[in-house]
Amino acid sequence: MDLRRHPTARCERCDSRLWYGLKSEGSGWKVLYKCQTAGCEGEVATSFIDMASVSSRDEVYERAEDIGRTL
Predict the structure, then answer these.
(1) C-alpha 4 chain-centroid distance
(2) Is the pLDDT of residue 43 over 90?
(3) Cα 62 from Cα 28, distance rounded (Å)
(4) Number of alpha carbons in the 13 Å side-chain half-sphere of residue 40
(5) What is this structure's pTM?
(6) Are 6 and 17 within 8 A, CB to CB?
(7) pLDDT reported for residue 41
(8) Helix ranges restricted to H, the chain
(9) Which of 5, 17, 35, 62 has the fewest CB atoms within 10 Å of its CB?
(10) What DSSP designation does 14 have?
(11) How many angstroms separate the first and last alpha carbons of the chain?
C-alpha cells in the first residue's frame, strides 16, 4: 500500500503528521491512517469509501484526505 502524508492530520500520541493509504476491498476502499514515527508507529484510524460514491481514483484520495481533517 502506498502511503501519502496528510497535510494537517496529526497523531494524538506524539503530534507527528499522519500518513494515509487505500486498500481495495470488494465494494470500495478501506482508508487507513498511520503514524510512522519511530516508537509510536501504529494504525490510528480506519474508514471506508463505497465504490458507488466516487467516480475516479483521484476522488477516492480526495475523500480519504477529507477524512483526515476530522481526526
Answers:
(1) 8
(2) no
(3) 14
(4) 15
(5) 0.84
(6) yes
(7) 78
(8) 57-68
(9) 5
(10) T
(11) 21
